[in-house]
Structure formats: C-alpha cells, structure tokens
Amino acid sequence: MKPEKTKLNFQNLNLLLICILPVIFLFFGIKKQSELHEKLMIQGIAIDLNHENNNNNYKLTVQAYDFKNPEDKNEPKIRVIESIGNTVSEALENLKKITGLTPLYSQNKIIIFSEELAKNGIIKIIDFFSRYYENRPSVKLRIAQNNAGDFLKIIPENNNKIIKASEIRDLVDEKSDTNILDFEKEVKTPISDACLMLLEKNSQNLIKCESTSIFNYDKLIKIMDKNNSIAIQILKNSPKPGIYVFDYNKNLISCKIETPKTKIKAKLNQENNLPEFDIFIKLNANLFESEQNFENIKSIEINIEKELNNNLKLLCEKVINESTKENCDLFKFGKILRNSNPKYFKSIEKDWKSKILPNIKYNIKINSKISMIGMNDN
Amino acid sequence: MNQKIISVPQLITLFMINRLVISMTFGSSSINNHNIWDCIISSLLVFIITFILIIPMMILFKNNENLDITDINEKILGKFGKIISVIYAFYFLLSCTYTLSNFKIFIESVINPPISFLVLLTSIIIFACYSAAKGINAIARAGAIILFLTFFLLIMIYISLFKLIDFTNFRPFFYENYNSLTDGIFFMLSRMSCIPAMGMLLPMCFGNIKKGIITWNFLVLFLMSSMIFLVTGVLGELSDIKLFPIYTATSAAKISKFENLDSLYLGLWTAGIFLKLSLFLNLSSECLRKSFGRKSNKIIIFLLGIILIITNMFVKISNIMSGIFDTRFLFFMTIFTAFLVPLILLIIKKISKFKQEPEI
Fold first, then answer.
1. CB contact under 8 A, A31 and B114
2. CA-angle at A254, arms to A250 and A259, nearest 5°
3. How far is A339 from chain B (nearest CA, A)?
C-alpha cells in the first residue's frame, strides 16, 4: 500500500500564522537592546571651534540626562560633557567613548553655534544634523555670543541648578523661532537668506535672547540689536515680535507688538529697470506701560500710533538697508520678484544678491492699531 | 466566470490606497531632479489621459461583463493569451517589487531602525501573502479599515502642513524648463498600476462602475495635486533635494501639542504597502493560476512572496530608478497592460466579428 499523501491545508493558515507570529516577536526580544540607563539622552548641543594645541577642530559641549546616576528619585542627573573631533560626527562619536553611554539624539532640543564658527559657515554641520536619522529637523538653532559651550553650563547665581537646554530654547516664542528645516530652506535657496537668534549672557549669568544674527548663505555677517530684531520679526511676519519701547514726548511707552501682517509687492521701475518693493505692514500694539497716566494717553492715541508707525518704519528701513548692503535677502524680495516677474528675474538671477539687491528701492507703509487691554474703548 | 464579490466603493478604496502609496514617496528624485511644483500641471494632464487609457478596458469589460482580462485573453488569443496573462502577472509582481524597493530605501536611509530590513520585509510579506490568500473580499474589507484611518491621519497631516505654507515658495510654472512637466506625466502614468488591475477586478465588482471610476480619478487628482501643493508650500526649493519630501515636511509639522507627525506618515504608508502587496499578490497569482490551469492560487501566492523577498534583498538603492525600475520601462509596461492589450483584443474581436458577418 502506498502511503497517503499529506496535502498542505491552507485552511489552517490562521493557526499557522498564530503560531509563527509570537515566534517572530520573540526574535525582537532576544536581540540585545540597550536599556534607558545605558543611554545618554542629549538635550542640547553646543559647537565651538577648538584652537587648543594649534588644532582647528570642533569642540562639542553636550547637555544630557544621565539615567545611570540619577540626582534623586524624581529627576535624572543633568550632565555636561565635552568632546573634541575633527568633524562634528567624530566629536559626537567620541561622546560614547568618554561616557560609556549610547547617545540618544532624538530628544535633542537645541543646537548652539559659536559666533566664530558661524562666521566660518555652518552648512556642513546643518547638513549633517538634517540627514542624520536620529536627529529631528524641528530642533531649534541659536548663535552664541563668544563661546557656545558656556551656555549649556550656566548656573545662575540665585539658583544652584544648571539652566536646562529646554529653558534656553523657550526664551524665544516657538512660532518665531528657526529650526533646522527653516534654516536649510532659506540657505539652500540661492536667492534667500536666513537669520538666527543670538544668545547673550550678562554679568549675573542670566541669559537673554533678543538680538538676531543675519546670514549670507551659511556665514554670519552681522548682528542686529533688540529693536532691529523686532523689525526683522515684523518684516518676516512672525506672530510675536516682542515688546517695543519707544519715546513719545519724553515719555517711555512700552507696547507688545503682535500679529503683524506684512505684504510685499514687487514692481519694475521702467526708467532704471530696477525692482521696487511696496511693503504694507499692519500690526496690533498692546500698550502696557507708560510714564503718563493711561487716561491721558487715551486722548492722544492717534498721535502715539503715528509715532509708533514712524519709529517702526525707520527701524524697518534700517534693517532692510543694512541687510541688503551685505547682499543678504532676509525678507524674500528675490522670491517675490521672481514670482511676480519671472522673465525679468531670470535675466538678473545671477546678479540678484551681488548687484541688484543692494540697489533696490522700497516704500514702507505701516498701519498700527493700538489697544489697551483692560481699558474701556470709549 | 467571476462572481460579483466587491462593491464599487470597495474598489475605489483599494485603488485610492494603492495610489496613496505612490503619492507619498513622490519627490524630485522620481522626475530626474526637476522641480516638483510643475508636476501639479502634470497631475491635471494625467487626470485627462487616465480617462483615455481606461476606455479600451471599459469597452472590453462591457462586452464581456463576467470575464476578467486573463479569461478574455484566452478566449480571443487562445494559447498566446496565456503568455499575455503571464505578462500581467509579471507586471503586478513588478509593481510590488518597486513599492518594496522604495520601502527599503526609506528604511535604510531615513529611519535606520535597530532591526534589519530583512526581518521587516519578511514580516510584511508574510502578512501580505496571508491577506492575499484570503481573497479579494477580505482585502477589500481590510482596505475599508485602512482607508478610515488614512482619512483621519491625512486630515491631521494636511492641517499641520497647511499652517506652514509660505506662498513665496510657489515658483512660476515652468520657470526652469518644461522637462518637469513631461517627466511628471511619465512618472505618474508609469505608476498607474490601477488600470491593469481593473482588468482583473472589474468583473468582480457590482454597482455603478462608471461613476466609481470617475470618482477615483478625481480623488487621485486631488491627492496628488494636494500633496505637491503642500510639499512645495512648506519646503520650497528644499523639496527638490529631499529624497522623501513629504516625510521631511511632516517631520517638522505639529498640531497643538501633537508633534512628530512623521510617525503618522510612516504608519499610513506601511498600512498602504501592506494592502497594495496583498492586492497585487492576489492578482498576480490569479493570472498565473488561470494561465497554468490550477485550482488554487494559494501556493502560487507564497511562491511569489518568496520571490519578492529574494528580489528585494538584492535591490540596491542606486538601482531604484534604473533597469526594471526605469520610468521608461515601467511606462511601457503600464501602457502595454492598461491600454495596448485591451485595445488589441478589441480590434481582433471586431475584425473576427466583421469576418463572421454574412455578406448581403
């Protein structure tokens, strides 16, 4: 008698899969995975140029959570580690050798570049962080006045706890902040440029982040002070440019500028064949503080608005002049011109930043609306 | 003879998810590094061309309502028809391989997970084979669940990206040249695997098919053009250098306290890949089953699964746009299976009918 052939019964496939599935998942379990306490959870990275021993390499300062040696039951220890390498990736790799822990970059909040490094160009480093799979493109970028590493080690005088990287990040309103992707977008477009907020610290070890560093391609070329930064934010349509203090008849008035709506229109001057831009800015200003009585202010509100408009107009003009003089297109004039007059722009595209941009003409119109929170409109 | 086992909405669901898998990986690398913004015009033209391409398939189906393309091949072309059916099977398998190759590039160059690609590949193919073996009806039901999730996740992604749009990023159309327009059309048409799939699925479908196909084509147009619009608006010129621009855009997007929306993208895409593999493995196996006169397609499905694993193990990232994945080859294959074969079958049928008509 021939033995009966056993036929593979696919009706029992369900059972087969139910048996196979747990086995597959068991394989994930037997693979060696590093535990949380074996990882160094990076919170912030500061990058400086290292000139020690006549070397010109990178010095990385990293603020990270160390779960292996917790400070107390509730909080992991914050460690600041320094590492040196010929490239940023090498310096990051060295972190593992120094700490014995595996760095985890996905939790990183901020990358700080030193002013010196930024003046030499940062696109190589940005490119690394943009492509490195563990790093997120939403990580915020800052420039540090002098040494970048110092900002991740600051312990304020009145507090013995180190300032966390997340606290440094939160100094700037999220919607007005620049992340890796935003920076890359502007820098990798040959007709536009980017800017980054500048970290400064005072004698009491307090950090402020009010000035703006402007870039030509990937190189820092100029630093704009607080008031100029407000103008930059207004022109860039940032929702919260900040508090602007101005003088009105020898009275200091402080107002919070919010929700600016900036529209830029390009046109071509037929006489000199150069582009002109009409800039319309509409914004709200919440009056918070004044040396004068608020009831008196109410009666002269229109005059204050005029004064605010004039001041902001001067600031915006100054910012545009200074940036365009440095061949830096912060406010996307090139893109606006290209979109409105592609034929003309194509003919001048190569010379846009070097020859045309510094000579553009523009008219700014500002229409601000002052409001006083808590005061009756009538 | 085929039984009517899926409804028109189920058919649209399957095709929409299939198209989503393609659309989500669309980038300038797909169109020889040209500007993807111009491809919004390509998608509009592809919308019109698709209607033209479908005509022979629809007429063929109208005349042979219960027969699929393999049955009609055999009926009209005899033994040669079986070879054509094998070509259909190859095309469906090729479509699966291309999708998995994209998945491989994504996993190896963007995600870099701690587990190997082989484990991921094997798991996804095992599940797809299982689903394919369960039949079209089961795949269609799974598609409905996936589409529900897709709809919800897409809305989240769209809302989050819409807030990040910068209107200065929209360049004038054809600012550099017209190459992006033609490359976009070639790319979109070469990945239009739904039309050959119609040849297999329409006879199993009940309901108003014409209305269904028009709706599907409109949805494809919306999906493709909205993705191009969002990516260009958010990334601008950066979209021209990113490998997976839609993924890059979602990785920086957030809604309220929800961030890291790229994980939604990943979930959405993986679910789509699973469904596409299931559907095309099933269709490929059906073509082979009918060509070789077998009763069951289940063993064929698992053999095809093994072939998929082996081929994708050896696909190199550098080869993704060349050889069998070259847009020109895929375009030829798609036009051949979607348009030429049905057209030739129609012509032969017409000629034979004409010859049979008695002279008066």
1. yes
2. 135
3. 6
